[in-house]
Amino acid sequence: MDGSWICRGGNQRKLLSSYLSLSIFLSGMDSSSTKAEVARELPFIRIFKDGSVERLLGTEIFPAGTDPKTGVSSKDLTIIPEIDLSARLFLPKLTGTPNNHQKLPLLVYFHGSAFCVSSAFDPTYHNYLNSLVSEANVVAVSVNYKKAPEHPIPAAYEDGWAALQWVASHCNGNGQEAWLNDHADFGRIFLSGESSGANIVHNLALAAGGGGGGGELGVRLLGVALVHPYFWGSTPVGSEAVDLDQERKGSSLAVDSEEWPEWLWSFVCPAMPDNDDPRVNPVAEGAPSLAGLGCGRALVCVAEKDVFRDRGLLYYQAVAGSGWMGVAELFETEGEDHGFHLSDLGSEKSTYLIQRLAAFFNRDMPAF
Hints:
The chain is of the alpha/beta class. It has helices spanning 5-8, 11-27, 32-35, 123-136, 155-168, 178-183, 196-208, 240-249, 255-258, 260-268, 309-320, 348-361; strands at residues 38-41, 45-48, 53-55, 73-80, 85-91, 104-110, 139-144, 184-194, 221-227, 295-303, 327-333. A hairpin with a 4-residue loop joins strand 4 and strand 5 (85-91). Helix 5 crosses helix 7 (196-208). Residues 1-34 and 250-258 have low confidence and may be disordered.
């Protein structure tokens, strides 16, 4: 693949506090890794001056299988052995005969966690996709893209594009994976992701439209759903400056831990560390036109208390006003923070968000 396209183009606060507390606890442990001098620390990863890293969460692996609550089945595949790219596939409980080849919307999903922790096999994302696949009645491919800092950006985008090409190889019913051959409707392909995963979704949609130079995909994306997307920029927008200042005043931790949104991009993308890189700031001067998004519908979900909320709102407004020939929608959850639904799937607001996404995945383009 020509990688030039990627170069051009409340509850969460409690959860974050837990991550930071875990970081403090682990810093006092007597181990060979923690004896090394720390160079930089995020709430979820510690980087040592000797080049080693210690991930503070997202390392647990939950086995695939059949979920007893929803009846959703899952299995793991190495989809492209040549680049060591794997995925977890999800299939909802099917009705009718065992040979029922009911065609369902196809969701290609990218998990969040700052490009550097977690996986497609993490119990948090596994349980979330069980709920989403059951509610939406979709087939899902959760991509286990490579993580920074061992694999800095653009690795996640390259893996994402390769995964889309693998998915598209099934469009004639003769691909590698029977679940996709038998049950995926290739006229209804959606991309979705949380946080950094939503960032990947944006960049892939731009590439699919030709705006990022990614090349011909061979199938059309019907829609994209960006949930609490990670975008940033060198100049604060909305309440960003106030939110970060409040966290500084309320924290006794090192500056790196307090200000991680400001330097996350430089950590995961050291080759182009500017927060106005169009891949992290799609409204930056000189960024590719959002009119080039290669899909027909876009849903942007934000949370009222999320530090990234105003960036998500700005992105929605920019897409809607870009001249893009699609339909843009915005959904905001009041009183909640970044990724709130992942830590409390059973809450009323989490359920409503999942229902909103499910409805989006089951609508075709409106007639004009």
